[in-house]
Amino acid sequence: MVLNLIFFLFFKGVLGDGNLTECVAEFKNIILNAPEAFSSTPNTYAKMFSYTGKSINQLGRFEDCYSMSKAKYAIIEIMKAPPILMAICGPEVCSKSNYYDIINSIINSTVTEENAELANFLGLTSDINQANLSYSMIFPESYIHSRFHDLNGSAIAMIVITVIIVAISLTGTVVDLIVHHEEDTMKIDIEETGIGKDDYLSVPHGELNLVNILICFSIVRNMKKLMSVHIDSYHPHLHFFDGLRVMTMGWIILGTVAGLYLYDLPLANYMKVKQTLKKYSSLSSYGSLLALDIMFWIGGVLYAYFLLNSYSSSIKHWVQIYLKHYLEMVPMFMFTTFFFWTLARYIGSGPYWYTANNIYSDCKDYWYSNLFFLSNFIPNGTWSKCLAHGWFLSVEMQFFIFTPLLIWIYKKSPFSAWVIIAGLISLGSILGGVIADHYNLNVSVYGPNRTSYYNYYNNKPYTRMPPYIYGLAVGFIYYTSSTNNDDKISHFIIKLIKNTVFRYASLFLGVTLWIVMINIQFDVYKDPGDDLSYGKWSQERTSTYFAFLRLLLGLAYTLMFTPMILGYFSGITMVLSSSAWTPFSRLTFCVYLIQAPIINIFMRSLQYPKYLSKTSAFCDWLALIVICYFFAFIFAVFIDIPAKTFILWIFGKKSAKENYYEIND
After folding, report:
1. Is residue 657 part of a domain?
2. Residues 440 and 580 in one domain
3. Cβ distance 83 to 53 under 8 Å?
4. How far is the C-alpha of 26 from the C-alpha of 41, rounded, in Å?
């Protein structure tokens, strides 16, 4: 396509004065010298021809073109998402207005045999003087240099803060090694999974002073906490959450990678995207949108169980729980927000890097939405794109706000709490269907109303409720199994699960239901239609799907995992409870926060277009899992663990069981 543009300039010419005439003459020189591109010593014009992309989404050779004194790398962006663009290593004398004049002259010219293919691609209608083309001209090196080259004040401030944190950590490490504090082994449940009675976040022994504060930041100590193994005996049946969380995190990363491939990156084989989505092998990629429901379900189980274990009628106790939970989550969330918002733009490079800051587009106006965990409602009830995936933490915090109240009700009247549980699950189901119908949502996130799907359905607590509420119910059951409290419904379920036939039927039905809910989407994806409307299902059927989606997913996880929580299916739980999972599970919070920014940096720093295939996607996914966990380890050791250790110290050490309220994040 790019060659057609250049040949059109050469054969037809473009009328113009001044710069435009010189620009066209330079383009003609590129064509005349094109054969020299194959010589051992090509001249400047031949190199410009060689460094130009030869077809749609071919990015040419950006760095080589950028290094030439008489050349300027340009991109004709025809579509943003999915990207359709043409890359040209053109003459330096050509301005944006020159390119617009040249392209518009092609659009408005008569469609001949010479330019028919180009005219057809650019969107000419049957009326040769009217075009439906909308495009933009971009000079990436100028864009990147003006915005991402010199450090601004906020970037410098973030670097200073980071250096200070590293210096404090190094100082704390030296102090820790010198002082050699002898500490009592504390069995507390504060690790990232919320389930291990070890010293993962044990605090220094002694008074709150400068030495002990520095020890909270000790790199050696924090690495040991991260790598420590479970040694508790109070709730060993929850250890299988380790493996479950790590596998779920891998699924989430797959979704991030796949989303970039299918919607945000220039693909050499872009024409095959629709065909790829129709293949069953793509199911795991777009099905990853449902992965976070597992995290919500696990969170519900842990919150219910541990809050019940630490129950107190004291108002001060519950104020501390709210405050402590907020303070445990906010340091890492806000550090990640400011770190990548201010510095990510300076880390990557390449011809497509001009799109790099899109993930932080709302930070200037709405950074505070992350601080208060309201990013899924700001602005105007929609969704902030300031660290866009942070909506999950906002929803989680909003769930946590009403959870202690439900725990209080359960302690007073278990039956009333179960009635509320049933009501909230039903409400979430009803609202899911109503919202899907009101906004005409589509099963496919690549179909129409994609923005509405994220703004009004995917990121809202009331549509996400069912899996979390199911998790709370399972937390009630597990608490009852360990305390024998007066909860007749929990006792009845426990009695059922003791029955071998029912137990295996529960596992089988849970797995089957999960497979059905994951696979049912494929019926829509396999038939996208010529206009990519994904309109196989009627709106009524689509709304019904959204009404029951989270309800049935939550039920599937409950049927599958409740017997395991109660100690059955030891073969499965033994594998998922392996100590090999534990350090990676503790990194889940950090991995989730950094995975989208890290993946954006690596994927958008491409020098050549991506080629969509199972092999290339798998290799990128596997490599990025390793990269994300590597950087999550650094963030955990320097930011997350020290912050949680210090907060634990402020709130005081709690005994392992009676006064326990250290909760999973």
Report:
1. no
2. yes
3. no
4. 20
Give how many domains the chain has, as a whole number: 2
Beta bridge partners, 138, equal: 75
In this structure, are residues 593 and 634 in contact, taking their beta carbons and an 8 Å threshold? no
Q: Which residue has the higher pLDDT, 403 or 21?
A: 403
Question: Could you give the CA distance from residue 394 to residue 333 in angstroms, rounded to a whole number?
Answer: 10
- From 71, 105, 138, the end of a domain falls on 138
CA 496 to CA 315: how far, in whole Å? 37
Percent of the chain surpassing pLDDT 90: 46
DSSP code at position 228: P
**The residue type at 645:** T
How confident is the model at residue 32, as a pLDDT? 86
Q: Measured between alpha carbons, how far is 23 from 662 in angstroms, rounded to an integer?
A: 68
Which residues pair with residue 189 across a beta bridge?
197
Q: Give the whole-angstrom CA distance, residue 33 versus residue 47.
A: 9
Query: Residue 120 above 70 pLDDT?
Result: no
Is 219 within the bounds of a domain? no
Predicted pLDDT at 572: 94
- Residue 519 amino acid letter: N
> Angle 394-396-402 (CA atoms, 0-180°, nearest 5)?
110
pTM for this predicted structure: 0.88
Q: Residue 103's pLDDT is what?
A: 77
Within a domain: residue 215? Answer: no
Q: Where does the pLDDT of residue 192 fall: very low under 50, low under 70, confident under 90, or very high at 90 and above? A: very low
- Alpha-carbon distance of 499 to 223, in angstroms, equals 43
Report the alpha-carbon distance of residue 380 to residue 456 in Å, rounded.
11
CA distance 31 to 665: 61
The span from the CA of 85 to the CA of 59, in Å, is 9
Which letter, b or e, does each residue of 453-468 get, where b requires 16 or more Cβ atoms within 10 Å of its Cβ?
bbbbbbbbbebbbbbb
Secondary structure of 136-205 as H, E, C letters: EEECHHHHHHHHHCCCCHHHHHHHHHHHHHHHHHHHHHHHHHHHCCCCCCCCEECCCCCCCEECCCCCCC
Residue 262's alpha-carbon distances to 267, 273, 381, in angstroms, are 8, 7, 27
Longest Cα separation, the chain: 90
Where in the sequence is the domain holding 7, given as residue range(s)? 2-138
Give domain status of residue 19, yes or no: yes
The answer on 240 and 134 residing in a single domain is no
Stretch 81-96: mean pLDDT, rounded?
Answer: 87
Name residue 84's beta-bridge partners. 79
- pLDDT tens, residue by residue, 329-365: 999 999 999 999 999 988 888 889 888 877 788 899 9
Dist. CA 417–CA 426, nearest whole Å: 14
pLDDT (tens digit, 9 = 90+) per residue, 254-276?
999 998 988 889 998 888 887 88
What letter would DSSP give residue 131? B
Closest to 24 in 3D by CA, of 91, 73, 74:
91
CA dist 531 to 275, 350, 447, 534, Å? 13, 32, 9, 8
